[in-house]
Amino acid sequence: MRTRNQALLSWLKTSTDQQVEATGTTRAYLRLIAYGHKTASAEIAARTEFATEGAVTRRDLRPFDWCRIWPELLAGSDESPRQSEAAVV
Description:
The protein is mostly helical. It has a domain at about 5-65. Helix content is about 55%, strand content about 0%. The radius of gyration is 13 Å and the shape is globular. Mean pLDDT is about 85; it is low at about 80-89.
């Protein structure tokens, strides 16, 4: 079952074309990500977090592998790497 990313959908409703451009992709592709049809690349996830000023995080966009891509985020997380990896299995 696909999971919607409500934070991304909400941001898309109010975002300007310049803000969307800062994500490195199109509004249409971000909608596909928001509705769970596509997975954001690591680059798009990071750029989206920056463009949304943290309203949508890299963890939100890549919930199953964020700790392997950005291990530095584990320092500020209550989640252990094992918990994130267990979600993949």
